[in-house]
Amino acid sequence: MPKVTVTEVVPAPLDAIYRVLSDMQQFPRFMKSVDEIQILERGDSWTVSQWITRLQGAKFRWIERDTFFPEQGRITFVQTEGDLKTFQGEWRLVEVPEGTEVTLDTEFEFGIPMLASLLNPVAKLAIRENAREMVRAIGSTAKDATQEGKA
Length: 151
Fold this sequence. Notes:
The protein has helices at 14-22, 27-30, 116-147, and strands at residues 3-10, 34-42, 46-55, 58-69, 74-82, 86-96, 99-109. It is of the alpha+beta class. It has a 7-stranded antiparallel beta sheet with strand order 1-7-6-5-4-3-2. α1 crosses α3 (116-147). The protein is globular and about 45 Å long. The relative contact order is 0.25. Pfam families: Polyketide_cyc (PF03364).
């Protein structure tokens, strides 16, 4: 199963970034590849969310279970239904002297073995670029909130 990992250091506090990450419904406001996120269910440390995103012009829809580990600076997600056979991953935050190291790991599988050798390399590049944009947008939003005194 292809895996993509993106790590960036963001000059913002870990707690501010975690707050932005935890408020997924707001992603469409500052992420151009995310059209819509709805929270379908919510528990103490989890949500079930429905996503509509664009990747290289194609729309993808899925429902995922998100599990929150604030004390560890982690959020995991696993697709429960959707356009891909498998889509899962994890956000990890680590305090560093320059701010916060933000890592997004994703694993995916199209579920079409005959086309995997053609689709996977292209998808990995597209997902890597999209993940990089997501990490930067979250970092920028958290940094702005911190400077405005909202974090």
